[in-house]
Amino acid sequence: MAAPSTAQDASRASAKAALAAPKVPLAIGVSWYPEQWPEARWATDLAMMRQAGFNTVRLAEFAWSRMEPSDGRFDFAWLDRAIAAAHAAGMQVVLGTPTAAPPAWMSQAYPEILRVDENGTRAEHGGRRHFSFASARYRTFATRIAAEMAKHYGRDPRILGWQIDNEVGPPSFDPEAQALWHAFLAKRYGTIETLNRRWTTHYWSQHYDNFAQVPLRATGQHNPGLLLDFKHFVTATWVDYVQAQAGAIRAVADPRQWVTTNTMFWNAGFDHFAMHRDLDLASWDNYIPDGRPDWLANAANHDLVRGYKQRNFWLMETQPGRVDWVPVNRALDRGQTRELAWQAIGHGADAVLYWQWRSALNGQEQYHGAMLGADGTPYPIFDESAQVAHDAAAAGPALAGTEPVGKIAMLFSYDSRWAIDLQRHHRDFDPIKQFTAWYRPLRSLSQAVHIVPIDADLKRYPLVVAPSLHVVTQAEADRLAGYVRAGGHLVLGPRSGMKDDANALWPQRQPGPLADLLGAQVEQYYALDAAAPLSGALGNGETSIWAETIAPRAKDVEILERYGPSNGWLDGKPAAVTRRVGKGRITYVGVWPDEAMLRGFARRLLEEAKVAPVIPDAPAALEVMERAGAGKRMLILINHGDAPLSPALPAGAKPVTGDLRDGSLPAHGVAVVALPAD
Predict the structure, then answer these.
(1) Which of 385, 401, 417 is the last residue of a domain?
(2) How far, in Å, CA of 535 to CA of 673, rounded?
(3) Any known ligand binding at 592?
(4) CA distance 481 to 656
(5) pLDDT, tens digit (0-9, with 9 covering 90-100), for 278-309
(6) Do 439 and 577 sit in the same domain of this protein?
(7) In CATH, what number is assigned to the domain containing residue 422?
(8) Is 68 tagged catalytic?
(9) Angle CA(236)–CA(242)–CA(248) in degrees, nearest 5?
(10) Is residue 199 included in any domain, yes or no?
(11) Distance (Å, whole) CA 424 – CA 51
(12) Tens digits of per-residue pLDDT, 333-371?
């Protein structure tokens, strides 16, 4: 083989230097689909993106039929030109593997790759996500296109990172999926006797002689262990699917090109902590379908996504104004698209990408919000998004190297969410609404909450709140007990410690393996159709959905709250208790308190933990987010209200960019402020 030329050496050195160069601190941009438009238009689009201040484009995640027009024939020439044009316009590029939308030649030649729903109906071509996640043949095609893309772009300095697929989620119930299900159960339980024992299959004569007898079902009158393990199976299958593509890319790509996948709002399809464990960063798609943001609930989802990797994330998609897939596709109010972007950044996003650049002339999402209309001229939202980009460019250097401060932690468990949803026992016991009900006062009063998995390192947090840790294993309980004994305060909400990871009831009363630590147990639980009064050290209030009576067993258990006259079963009984253990404390609250009572309880917990907000007594409409790191402390302030506010900034605070003028923040205004470093 001939020695490489001097020009080749120079080219490689240049590429290596470009990969090593720091990227922009805040990536602001759009999903761009050059394959949908004449190539003569590309330069105009990219010039307009640059005019808007965008610095990033996401490409190719739906372009499989363009990249592989027939089986094994690849065409990347058009994508080469698109990437070159984007780079020339000053854009960094994120590439998506196109596996959410397989091409028609594949669906026609290999119909066995198509997804089958729970009723046995096989999907047709023409939508997206119509493949079976269990299909070995489809996996071969998917990893092949990922590998071919990586061979072509894995060492390209213009490529920042990779998004695997797009919003994975729908499972399949085809024969291959059934075979994988049975193999999954065999690996999980080892023997059919163990499965029978863990699922209590002698109930209703469900006893199985072998794994092949176990039906693959997601819903219906099936054993709770089967239904929860279905979620475990879906998680394992999707993780394997994503990792197969990630492995194909990493085999040849520069390790500085990160790999992620984008997830969705409070998605329950799989365990997102497990999905992101072996990915380089977390990313998600933030949409407000009805156009009326619940800012605290949206903040909670940002904090959850940050918790997947417990570090900063990317907002891979967000709406420019509106969506097109709900009954009333109301646009966000003027200013709220900007608020949405800065809220994401405040909670740890290092990127905000809009979906999408231009409305397609046809296709299922032609009415979706976009920067440009089908005629190629800007929609009104263009200027607001451009303001986000220009402000982010100004604030980027100050925010570089920072991440959200977290003074307390909340535990989120997918197993617990799934198990409660499978058996709510009260139609209104929505585990997400219950979680956010606790999050609201804790976040607004402390102005800094991390949401983490149960296996996270908790020692840095003086207070850890688990609103409904319904499913807990013995090993997890032991770790939590260690946290308490070492000096932490663990607060458990109702329905905690009821189930194990096979969705079986613990033989000891709630909170199951934590009952000895608590020195008390739940005597009985009650679904309510009328409010029950509460009074005690946590204040006066009521619970209207759920009530548990708690029986102290240890002498040092302190009763915090009791029920007033109600249904006879509750009257005068303890509703919340606490106990000091070692250097710390465990508290159990057996009710879903009303909003005012929860706020009072949150205030007490934060005072005991010596956690104070950056801006005390901040108005409800003011969202305060602190990011710190690299010797810097930054505040991002958003006025979500319709009237000006005058936030009481800490001494020495200096505005960096935004709308703060003479101490006043206008309605829907945003400000980035530097604080003196500690």
Answers:
(1) 401
(2) 42
(3) no
(4) 44
(5) 999 999 999 999 989 999 999 999 999 999 99
(6) yes
(7) 3.40.50.880
(8) no
(9) 130
(10) no
(11) 51
(12) 999 999 999 999 999 999 999 999 998 888 778 788 888
- The CATH number covering residue 42 comes to 3.20.20.80
Are 321 and 415 found together in one domain?
A: no
Widest pairwise Cα distance in the chain: 91
Residues 592 and 656 in one domain: no
Structure tokens at 70: 């027939």
Among residues 353, 384, 401, the one where a domain terminates is 401
pLDDT for the residue numbered 1? 36
Identity at 236, one-letter amino acid code: A
Element (H, E) at 96: strand 92-96
Could you tell me which of 665, 658, 666, 667 has the C-alpha nearest to residue 634?
A: 658
d(CA 260, CA 446): 31
In this structure, the strands spanning 449-452 and 403-404 are unpaired
Tell me how far CA of residue 274 lies from CA of 30, 95, 237, 569, in angstroms.
Answer: 28, 23, 11, 41
If asked whether residues 516 and 418 sit together in one domain, one would say: yes
Whether 645 and 564 map to the same domain: the answer is no
**Which parts of the chain register pLDDT below 50?**
1-22
Whether 635 is in a domain gets the answer yes
Q: pLDDT digits over 442-473, tens only?
A: 999 999 999 999 999 999 999 999 999 999 99
Candidates 167, 476, 561, 626; catalytic one:
167
Taken in order 260, 264, 265, 270, is the CA torsion positive or negative?
negative
What is the 8-class DSSP label of residue 49? H
Report the pLDDT value the prediction gives residue 3, as an integer from 0 to 100: 38
Q: Which of 68, 317, 561, 626 is catalytic?
A: 317
CA 409 to mean position of chain CA atoms: 16
Q: Is residue 481 part of a domain?
A: yes
Q: Assess whether 476 and 390 both reside in one domain.
A: no
Residue 128 labelled as part of a binding site:
yes
Strand order across the beta sheet in which 622-629 lies: 403-404, 622-629, 632-639, 670-675, 654-658
The pTM score is: 0.94
Q: Please confirm, yes or no, whether 35 is among the known catalytic residues.
A: no
Range of the domain at 297: 27-170+238-401
pLDDT, tens only, 198-207: 999 999 999 9
Total structural domains within the chain: 3
What value, to the nearest 5°, has the Cα angle with vertex 360 and ends 356 and 364?
Answer: 95
Contact indicator for 551, 523 with CB cutoff of 8 Å: yes
The closest of 157, 133, 122 to 18, measured between CA atoms, is 157
Please tell me the distance from the alpha carbon of residue 582 to that of residue 486, in angstroms, as a whole number.
Answer: 7
Q: How far is CA 353 from CA 99, 335, 384, 584, 618, in A?
A: 20, 17, 14, 43, 30
Alpha carbons 53 and 91: distance in angstroms, whole number: 10
Cis peptide before 356 (omega within 30 of 0): yes
Q: Would residue 1 count as lying in a domain?
A: no
Residues 6+ apart with CB under 8 A from 450: 303, 306, 307, 310, 404, 406, 408, 409, 410, 461
CA distance 171 to 185: 17
Give the pLDDT confidence score for residue 611 in this predicted structure: 97
Q: Are residues 397 and 412 in the same domain?
A: no
CATH of the domain at 656: 2.60.40
Determine if residue 129 is labeled as part of a ligand binding site.
Answer: no
Residues 505, 535, single domain; the answer is yes
Residue whose entry in the numeric block shows the structure tokens 């998680």: 235
Q: Which residue in this structure is represented by tokens 């190297």?
A: 401
Contact 172, 241 (CB under 8 A): no
Q: Give dist(CA 367, CA 403) in Å, integer.
A: 36
Distance CA 551, CA 162 (A): 53
